[in-house]
């Protein structure tokens, strides 16, 4: 009986993860500019992968594979938002403007403006 509950939970997590990754893919295809696409990919990628990994951990049970999946999960949890922030910061540094924002509304961050 407990195996059935764990299977249902794990497949629920896996399907929820697939849903988030699919929504992120749609966001990458449909959104208008770099920043909104980066937001869609960064948020849904992290959440989708974490849900997928939790589902796989439930399927694996208590084993070495679960420990490895947990380590991968922690790595993704910390590096994915950091990479998203670094990409957005790099795009801002080279002057990539967000969609629909006029030049005068952008906040200056150069040394001359401080």
TrEMBL record:
This is Monovalent cation/H(+) antiporter subunit G. Pfam families: PhaG_MnhG_YufB. The gene is mnhG. Keywords: Membrane, Transmembrane, Transmembrane helix. The chain crosses the membrane at residues 12-31, 51-78. PANTHER family: ANTIPORTER SUBUNIT MNHG2-RELATED. It comes from the Bacteria. One of its GO terms (molecular function) is sodium:proton antiporter activity. The lineage of its organism: Bacteria, Pseudomonadati, Pseudomonadota, Alphaproteobacteria, Rhodospirillales. InterPro entries: PhaG_MnhG_YufB (IPR005133).
